[in-house]
Every structure is written in C-alpha cells, then in structure tokens.
Amino acid sequence: MPTKIIPTRPLNENEKFLREKFYESLAAQSDLMDKLSERLLTLELAIPGAYATALKLMYGDKATVTFGTWGYLAFGLWFASLILTLFALAPQKWKVDVSILKQDPRKLNQALGIEDFFEQSALYKRRLISVSSVLFFLGVVGAALTL
Length: 147
Hints:
Blueprint: H1 13-59, H2 69-89, H3 114-146
C-alpha cells in the first residue's frame, strides 16, 4: 500500500492569534459564569428586600398583610434561586488528568482532560445559573400576583 504524504505548512500569525484567542475564550467561560452569578446574586438579595420594603411602606406599621400562597411561593422560589446561585459560585473539586488535553467521552467519569475541565465546569455553572434565573423570574411573577 503506497504511503500518501499529506502536505502541511506552519501556522501563519493570524492563525496562531485566532487559535490563542479560541483557547483563551474557552478557559474564560467559567470566569464569565462566575461574573454572571455575582450579578444574579446581587439581584436575588436586592429584589426580595425591596419587595418587603415596598409592602411595609404600602401597608404601614400597624396594618397587617395577608400573605397567601403566592407570597410564600415567591419567597420560596427566591430562596431556592439564591441557593442555586451560591452553589454555582462555590468552588468544585474536579478530577483532571493534566497529561490529557481532551478525554475520550466514554471516560469522562474517570478523569477530565484539560479542555474538558474548562467545558464541564462552565457547563455545570451555566446549568445552575439557568435554573436559578427561571426560579427567580417565577418568584417575581408570584410576587406580582400577591398584590
């Protein structure tokens, strides 16, 4: 069987730059998720406080506010959202084999490759933040229905 020679050439400067930026963006995804989590955490702490303050201002010191199912649901959803966001911000322990760049997908439960680590950690955070955002929005809807 004849051997076919595959022609190659070294990367030019533009290709090197693009490859470098690709790997930088891959490595920065987890940091982006952390920044998003921090902003979401700020909202999750501010909105329920502002809502409680607005209720206090609307009904005064001596008035009683009947807090029905929607009110409890709103604060429950906000609390669940807060917990998920805190989990997204908490550091995780990942089993990584630094000698492997990209692990075989069937062996991801054994150890991650370096590239897999960046992808999996960002995916983990993105999932938690997505669910947290939906719960927070549903809490806002529940709070709107209490009035």
